[in-house]
Design a protein that fits this description.
- 16% of the residues lie in helices and 49% in strands.
- By secondary structure, it is of the alpha+beta class.
- The chain has a five-stranded mixed beta sheet, with no helix packed on it.
């Protein structure tokens, strides 16, 4: 009756109807985000949590700190490995919300993270032949409806040999 509470594992975009008498809370990992009406995205993957505000403002708290961090439109915070929340930084909303439009968006993203996103989205397994690809990064936006095209662009851009067979992608 007094509040609206959800727990999140993964990633979700929230559009919250204003109601100052009943705050909306998102519990995700070791963070709590509280709003009374706004639009925001929370991504909780592999023990890394990001909160990005699309409209309005939110306040995010960590289990390690009683003082919350306020965020406004176009800002993001990240939960650090030590369990504290970073200072807000300005971000490009189109990049962080691309998934809502069936797109991947990468900005100087390590290839391991790019392939992890592809692996997760398409429910595939990525096999690397060697570790020489660790230092490579990718910048670009891709529609998610063309795995072959995405792999082809990554292959040409980073001068790699990438193939896929059934549920496996091979990178060398």
């Amino acid at each position: 009756e007094n509040e609206r509470v959800v727990e999140l594992v993964g990633e979700a975009y929230f559009s919250v109807t204003p109601d100052v008498t009943r705050p909306f809370k998102v519990l995700s990992g070791s963070t709590t985000t509280i709003v009374t009406g706004t639009e925001f995205n929370i991504r909780n993957r592999k023990n890394k949590i990001n909160v990005v505000v699309a409209t309005g403002s939110v306040k995010t708290f960590s289990d390690k700190s009683v003082k919350g961090v306020s965020l406004h439109k176009g800002e993001m915070v990240t939960l650090t490995k030590a369990g504290f929340i970073s200072a807000p930084v300005r971000v490009e909303l189109d990049h962080h919300l691309a998934w809502r439009h069936d797109k991947f968006s990468f900005a100087k993203t390590p290839l391991t993270e790019v392939m992890s996103e592809i692996e997760r989205y398409y429910n595939l397994k990525v096999k690397k032949k060697n570790d020489s690809t660790k230092s490579r990064t990718l910048t670009g936006t891709f529609k998610t409806n063309g795995l072959d095209k995405i792999l082809s662009v990554i292959s040409l851009t980073l001068d790699l040999k990438i193939s896929h067979d059934g549920k496996k992608i091979y990178v060398q």
